[in-house]
Batch of 2 targets.
Target 1
Amino acid sequence: MFISEIVVIDDGSSDETAEIAAACGAVCLTNPTNRGKGNALRKGFAYALEHGYESVFTMDSDGQHQPADIPRFLEHFDDTGPDILIGARETKDFRTSMPLHRRMNNCFISYVGSKLCGQRVPDFQSGYRLIRAEVLRQVHLETERYEMESELLIKAGRLGFRIESLPIQTRYGDEVSHIKPLREIWLFTRLLLRSL
């Protein structure tokens, strides 16, 4: 497997994201205003399907994920053949770097989400993912914010797609998270109620 194209989703940023991405040779899809992470991912998924890609690799742009993990990730995907491969942040990264409220939130969502999708997924909210295009063709996504990543796993698991995880390293610096824990729990709870 090889990476044929890099697509950057500029979700209403006020900096020079689009210009820098284009200058580096990436395709840049732009939302004029912020529409949410789920909406941005759905925009990227639609682009990939329209262009006939066999799989999609997603990575958050906050600097926490290490591009150096990509070759190992792709090799594992080719060797084991899951439908979705998730980069599970290592436990030591959670304990030493991730803020407590985010750690608790992630543990709760991962536990409940795993029950709902019928497979153990230790890091339900990781944005480091490799997804077969067939999953994206069959799963009808409806949400537009952070809960969309959970929606994708729940619906994919229920359709019988195989989900695997691979440990990855994560770096937490001084960046400010835009995740609001209470709102995220509310969005996930609403998704949970629709999934029951």
Note: The first strand starts at residue 7 and ends at 11.
Target 2
Amino acid sequence: MSIDISKLDEAELVDLNRRIVARLKYMQEARTHHQMLRFDVGDRVRFQPPGHDPKTGVIVKHNRKTVTVVTDDHHQWNVAPVFLSRVIEPPSAENASPARIVRLPTKG
């Protein structure tokens, strides 16, 4: 599909530019939203901020374009979901709870 813009006047070009920018913004927001759906509040994630060591933390909030992550060192970061990766950690022995047997009262 080819659009000949050479015949458009200035007002038409400005209008076309406005529409293009709005469409690109919509497409970017849709892509960000789709990426954000991969993560839930409470998920453990990892990301690499520029100039910093990799950070690991928990998602505490979904924002419009980012998610808020509280890192293990108790700092808060707003991170675009494209930079996140899920951390899957096996349950540790200290967090595992032993199985419990619950006895229900009997009639009688």
Note: The domain at 10-86 is CATH 2.30.30.140 (SH3 type barrels.).
